[in-house]
Amino acid sequence: MAPSPTSSCDLAFDREHIWHPYTSAVNPLPVYPVRSARGCRIILEDGRELIDGMASWWCAIHGYNHPRLNQAVQEQLRNMAHVMFGGLTHRPAVELARRLTAMTPTPLQHVFFADSGSVSVEAALKMALQYWCALDHPERKRFLTIRNGYHGDTFGAMSVCDPVTGMHTLFQGFLPEQIFSEAPRCAFDALWDEAYIQDFADRLEEHSQELAAVILEPVVQGAGGMRIYSPHFLRRVRELCDEAGVLLICDEIATGFGRTGKLFACEWAGISPDILCVGKALTGGYMTLAATLTTREVAHAISRNDGVFMHGPTFMANPLACAAANASLEILEEGAWRSATPRIEAALREGFSACADLPGVAEVRALGAIGVIELRTPVDVARIQAMFVERGVWVRPFGRLVYVMPPYVVSPDELDKLVSAVVDVVRRLP
Strand runs (DSSP E) across 273-414, as ranges? Predict the structure, then answer.
């Protein structure tokens, strides 16, 4: 029997049947029903408006219901919603690949479209493995990464996430065992000391002959801890990878498209990876889409002797998603984000500084449109979430971290209310 239409969200059915991310099926965290969203505001079914401090897990960089993104999707829908990418191509995908190769570092000339950030990481890992197999080095099949990293929830991606804060303990014995060096301990603007890179250098030297690649999030580690580290660390990683003859994969799924104050976080260090993963903000939060870019050297090595890259998602280069991405990147190319992110950073840095000396706060940090208050103990998510909603903002903490990554179009008044609410809530925590 078909479900009966309802005029409002059925929270009882939701609780009984829908499994939300990172929550229990038996005792789930509360959810708030949304009626609509526009600009930087989420409108709940009861009429309350929440200023969005999350950009829907960092992807809605232009806000909600953007007229140009709406138009791009509507126009594409008149032509086709989807067509397989095996043996076919289409204008939105070609245009998007052209934009991506133009805005990313010059050596990255080949674009592989994926349907999510995790899948783009899987593709990157497989590219590195196939590269070395094509060069007759099948023994190079492990990856080196840094602790506190996060690269997604699929199996290959999980294997290069932090082995303690990630999911290794749950899936021990199933995940490939990778190699981890200590997390960067040099602050963004810290004076450089070569001791900061020593552990990484030691691991790279010890395992270089079995490594396919190094993978890391440049300058800002996202869901693994929202840690911000020195661009000099990334610069030295690139140099050491070159010396050891190891590929470098940069995961810019969270940091790409202006989030750190640069179009890509790699720009802070002036480096180019051999493989680059992008996603999240690629479509401005409209559709799920990601991409893995690589160099001609990697792509041509994999393709030698009639070789092919062994990956092909069903919804690869979905035309609707590509159309949304083209509109999103066109807005970025116009450059308003370049003045927006320093304004957001200044407000976050100044506002959150009021919490720096609180006994329950370990550290306050900000970069671009990212602001973080790290607590000394984990938060009660349900309680703190309700406190934020009561104050008219949407902030989704995790672990010991209360952080915001708002849309770039957040107004000064909205940003002030968001920051004030965060500070007020943190001050009231035990």
Answer: 275-278, 290-295, 361-367, 370-375, 393-394, 401-404
Q: Is 22 a catalytic residue?
A: yes
Report how many helices (DSSP H) and strands (DSSP E) the chain contains, helices first.
Answer: 13, 16
Six token digits for residue 326: 């083209």
SS3 category, 326: helix
- Closest of 305, 300, 306 to residue 274, by C-alpha: 300
User: Are 219 and 228 contacting, i.e. CB atoms less than 8 angstroms apart?
Assistant: yes
SS3 211: strand
d(CA 229, CA 346): 18
Place of tokens 């990697």: 298
Domains identified in the chain and CATH numbers: 11-65+336-428 (3.90.1150.10), 70-334 (3.40.640.10)
- b vs e for 300-331, b when ≥16 Cβ sit within 10 Å of the residue's Cβ? ebbeeeeeebeeebebbbbbbbbbbbbbbbeb
Q: How far apart are CA 59 and CA 281, in angstroms?
A: 4
pLDDT, position 6: 47
The question of whether 262 is a catalytic residue gets the answer no
3-state secondary structure of 247: strand
Active site residue 229: no
Q: Which residue's structure tokens are 């190094």?
A: 214
The pLDDT of residue 7 is: 55
- Closest C-alpha to 390, from 422, 346, 364: 422
- Which pTM does this prediction carry? 0.97
Integer Cα distance of 384 and 55 in angstroms = 18
Choice among 22, 136, 306, 357 that is catalytic:
22
Distance (Å, whole) CA 275 – CA 216 = 11
Task: Look up 150 and say whether it is catalytic.
Answer: yes
Of 52, 162, 251, 274, catalytic:
251
Q: What is the pLDDT of residue 1?
A: 44
- In degrees rounded to 5, what are phi and psi of residue 332? -60, -40
The number of CA neighbours under 13 Å toward the Cβ of 351 is 26
Per annotation, catalytic residue among 162, 196, 280, 286: 280
Burial class (CB in 10 A: 0-12, 13-18, 19+), 116: buried
Averaged pLDDT in 10-residue chunks for the chain of 430 residues = 59 96 95 98 98 98 98 98 98 98 98 97 98 98 97 95 83 92 97 98 98 98 95 98 98 98 98 98 98 98 95 97 98 98 98 98 98 97 97 97 98 98 97
